[in-house]
């Protein structure tokens, strides 16, 4: 992670952009998921596993990747 102030972030090692909205961006890093929250978030680039994010970044947190269900519905 390379962060410049609270407005620019570059995430290296990204495998996939999972969710992309102005308030939340979720990035798959393989063994974990990085959740970025804020306001007016945009992905400015996605090249060779590096994702650029700009906007007002409020928080970042690591989450577990989703468990594959192999086409079956999971009920709790």
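Sequence proposed for the structure above (76 residues):
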């Amino acid at each position: 992670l390379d962060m410049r102030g609270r407005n620019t972030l570059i995430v290296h090692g990204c495998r996939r952009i999972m969710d992309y909205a102005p308030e939340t961006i979720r990035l798959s890093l393989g063994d974990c998921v990085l959740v970025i929250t804020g306001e007016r978030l945009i992905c400015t680039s996605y090249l060779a596993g590096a994702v650029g994010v700009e906007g007002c970044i409020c928080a970042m947190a690591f989450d577990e990747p989703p468990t594959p269900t192999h086409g079956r519905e999971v009920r709790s």
